[in-house]
Hints:
This protein is α/β, with parallel strands linked by helices. The protein has a single domain (25-285), classed as Rossmann fold (3-Layer(aba) Sandwich), CATH 3.40.50. The chain has eight helices and ten strands. It has an eight-stranded mixed beta sheet, with helices on both faces. A two-stranded antiparallel ribbon has the order 2-3. Helix 4 (132-159) crosses helix 6 (178-189). It is globular and about 45 Å long. The chain starts with a helix and ends in a 6-residue tail after the last helix. Residues 1-21 have low confidence and may be disordered.
Amino acid sequence: MKSGIVSVCVLxxxxxxxxxxxxxxxxxxxAAPGSENWTHEEKEYFSPIFNTQVVTNVAHPxxxxxxxxxxxxxxxAVIICPGGGFHALSINSEGVEVAKLLNGKGVTAFVLKxxxxxxxxxxxxxxxxxxxxxxxxxxxxxxxxxxxDGLAATKYVRDHAxxxxxxxxxxxxxxxxxxxxxxxxxxLHYTPESRPNFVAPIYAYLGVLGDAEVPKDAPPLFxxxxxxxxxxxxxxxxxxxxxxLSAKKSAELHMxxxxxxxxxxxxxxxxxxxxxxxxxDWLDGQALLKK
Length: 291
C-alpha cells in the first residue's frame, strides 16, 4: 500500500514539473555581434502587470526547440517571437504555449529569445514609466540587433533542417507585438539564406520599421489583430496586409472586434481566443500541415 501511495505522489510531483524542450540552442558561438560589451544578466519572473511569465535583459540570443511527436511531425517549422516592447518577452503566453499547440498540429516550433533593451530589476515597470518618446528611442536602438537575431535564427534552422527533421522550404516566422515588428522586419530584409517561407505578424507594431518595399519574392503573410487594440495597432496590420496586396503577394488578414492587445494564448471568453485555429486553417490552406 505504501509503495502505491509513493508511486502516486511521484507521478503527481512529476506532473507539476515544467515540460522541458528538447534543447536550447545558442544562436551565436560567442558574444552576439554588435553587443559584445553587454554584461547584464538575463532574468525570468512573473509580471503582475503582464499577468504572465516574462524574460528581460536578453544579451545572448537563443532558440528553444519544441518538437511534435515523431509520428505526427509534418516537416513544417515555425520560429516564434514573443512580444514585450523590446523590453521584455511574454515567454509563455506568446511563446511556449504557442509552440506546444503547434506541436499538436505536427509543427516543430522554435521560441526565439532575441536581444532586448537593457533594463534594471523589472523591465516591464521600467518600460511603462518611460515617456512614449523614450520607449520609441530605445526600441529603435535595439531593433537592428533583434532583427539580426531573427535573420540568424532563420538561417540556423534552415542550415540544420535535416538534423531537426524538417523541410528547409517550410520554415515560417511568427511574432507578437514587438515580436511582430521583428517578424515583419525579417519578411522585408532577408537574404536568400534567411528568407522565411511564410510569416505571421500578430498585432504587430510597425512604427520602427521605416518604409521598406515588399521584396519581389516576399513570403505569404498571415496578419491578425483586434480592432479595439488599446495601443492603436489595428491599423498597422491593415496597412501591412494592404502593402502585401499592392505588391500582388499572398496575404490573409483576420481582425477581431474585441481582444485588446497582447492576448496571445490567454483566455478572455472572446472569439479571439480561437485565433490559433484560424492560423492553423491558413497553414492547412498553404499545404503546410500535410506530410
